[in-house]
Design a protein that fits this description.
The structure is a homodimer. By secondary structure, the first copy, chain A, is mainly β. Chain A contains two helices and nine strands; from the N terminus they run E-E-E-E-H-E-E-E-E-E-H.
Chain lengths: 167, 167
């Protein structure tokens, strides 16, 4: 048994999405959806130099236990009709509920990042922000397994309650 | 104060890098460096369907407190000579020591992922594995702030002890 790992959120993300139903399933489908990452005042000096980046990588906790559902190892993802191994999907009901989103950074104002294209629930605890660097992060032709013929549908697909736990 | 978030590692990553000195600073500089993610047996069914993906996103704890150094808000990164806000860098001495690496997936064998291009220390606790999906993750022309003219140097740059805490 490996020791547990504990993190202290660096802030909170505000978005228009109060429940998973109707939320875009990926930033590419979130269009102009605004959002705002409010970083703790004490950490604001760490945001210096971020404004030159067009996109940032948000690392966060998928914090709503009802919305993300119980962890499972196989799941029927939004873009498919058959069960897939959870680590071959981006579904939220993962063993560790960690989310990653690459979103557009519009402006930095004090301790607040103004974001566009957010696919996060309102109130999401933010764990880290990293600059998106194409040379490290962009692999346009990377083979995408079962997603291959389905990834474009993510631009219009909206979440539903499929991962939701029974109340 | 936001509540702390706790995760249980899903496995461990084995690599040739026992200390940060000499380690590639990004997967793009790691070339053929092999690695292996050993997932807990109980979670192995979650790896189904992963083999069709050329790359995976590893989410992990930067676990070596000496190697990553004390958290700080400004840092002189490997690719620059002036201090930058920590959230505008990929340096390990972050408020939350969470790392993300996009690595090549060569083969899945039972509970083991065989990887190429690893820039992780041996023994790194793995928190999540996600499939790399170009439509979600690839933005080849995204503006990269201070990295803009420096990102190519990451292919040859090696880490040194600069973030190391005094023993």
């Amino acid at each position: 048994m490996l020791p547990a790992v504990t993190f202290q959120p660096i802030g909170i993300v505000r978005t228009p999405w109060e429940t998973p139903e109707g939320m875009p399933i990926q930033p590419v489908g979130a269009g102009q959806a605004w959002g705002r990452a409010e970083i703790l005042d004490s950490l604001a000096p760490g945001l210096r130099d971020l404004e030159g980046f067009e996109r940032v990588i948000l690392v966060y906790e998928l914090h709503d236990p009802q919305g993300r559902g119980e962890p499972r190892l196989e799941v029927v993802p939004f873009l498919d009709q058959v069960p897939r191994g959870i680590f071959a999907t981006r579904a939220p009901c993962r063993p560790n509920p960690i989310g990653i989103s690459i979103v557009e950074l519009c402006k930095v104002e004090g301790n607040v990042l103004h974001l566009r294209g957010v696919d996060l629930l309102d109130g999401t605890p933010l764990l880290d922000v990293k600059p998106y660097v194409p040379r490290f992060d962009s692999f346009p032709n990377s083979r995408a397994g079962w997603f291959e013929k389905r990834q474009d549908r993510a631009t219009t697909m909206r979440a539903d309650g499929r991962f939701r736990s029974p109340e």
